[in-house]
Amino acid sequence: MSALTPGPTRRTVLTAAGTAGLLFATTGTAAADRRVRLTLPRPTGPHRIGTTSLHLIDHSRRDPWTSPSTPRELMVSLWYPTRNGGGAKLAPWLPPATMALYRQQTAQDLQTSLDNVDFPQTHARQNGPVDARRRRHPVVLFSPGFRTMRAFGTSLVEDLASHGYVVVTIDHTHEAEIVEFPGRRLELSRQPAKPTDDEYALALRVRRDDTRFVLDTLSARRSLPPGLSASLDLSRVGMFGHSLGGAAAAETMAQDPRILAGVNLDGSVIGPVAKTGLDRPFLLMASAGHGRDNDPTWADFWPRLRGWRRELLLRDSGHQTYTDLAPLAQQLIRRVPMRPEVTAALTNNIGTISANRAIPAQRAYLRAFFDLHLRHRDNHLFSGPSPRYPEIEFIP
């Protein structure tokens, strides 16, 4: 598999699929005395947003990663427009027990204390009231990269919700690095250090089935908070994902006609869909050095896309530019002393493009895609290169 194919990682700072083991080094006492507050970019839409988490159990399936096998359990988050905060607090980027373990593991990897680092809050109110005054919202599903937690898509997910979408993010239990269930129960990744092609294929099938179960649950209007069920327009469903999540978006679309449009953010295409293709709109977004010219799975998949299709490239980006790692790592690079080789390793993963440019471009094209194919609103961003986003290259 290529370097851009979804791959495993060991525990790392701001872990996302494909990152190498990174070691930060502090010098002197300045870093320990100064608080480092990490932030995520603000959503750009007109709606305030809320979020809520759901614990789902699929009794029709056995978890393939456990022995003895147990029913498949998932944690998902819904992000949605809300009328006001209702006094609710901002949701944390990671839930409490996950953050405690994540901080501990990361400090071990970094060989330094992270006591002076404040990880970000989201911009969504925890369990904020649903805005019941407005019409139903299109639904978009999100699947993260291999071994990556659903929180790493927050920068993109929040923005879609602020523009009137309900976005559902999925943690794929025992593949994701950490999944926190009610009662602060943690389930950790059970994936091998070096997965085989067959193990990747199994992970893809599990993700496909996870996603279809989540969509079934939404369709049955089960387990949803008051007001949220009535706000879902399940006749307009899309899906996007990063890395293996992008492959999962394509594979799930191929198996489930309810998903009308999909986006693959820099993931190689594997599974049966690589041969069968798709007859519905699909967008491929690549990092620098990736695309049909050097990923044979994209080259083979492209002619099998029989509906609307586009390939875009984000200049000067890395594989992790499509995750929250981009803004958070760049903030750490600026504010935490580290060895030159560590900075180089981080830059290799997130690219040299500023997150202040990369994230607005990603958000704009992702929203324009779903607006076009779920809302039938064309802002003509896909008509050709835009001077507003010179970082985006159209691949013919």
UniProtKB/TrEMBL annotation:
<keyword id="KW-0443">Lipid metabolism</keyword>
<dbReference type="InterPro" id="IPR006311">
    <property type="entry name" value="TAT_signal"/>
</dbReference>
<keyword id="KW-0378">Hydrolase</keyword>
<dbReference type="InterPro" id="IPR029058">
    <property type="entry name" value="AB_hydrolase_fold"/>
</dbReference>
<dbReference type="Pfam" id="PF03403">
    <property type="entry name" value="PAF-AH_p_II"/>
</dbReference>
<keyword id="KW-0442">Lipid degradation</keyword>
<protein>
    <submittedName>
        <fullName>Lipase</fullName>
    </submittedName>
</protein>
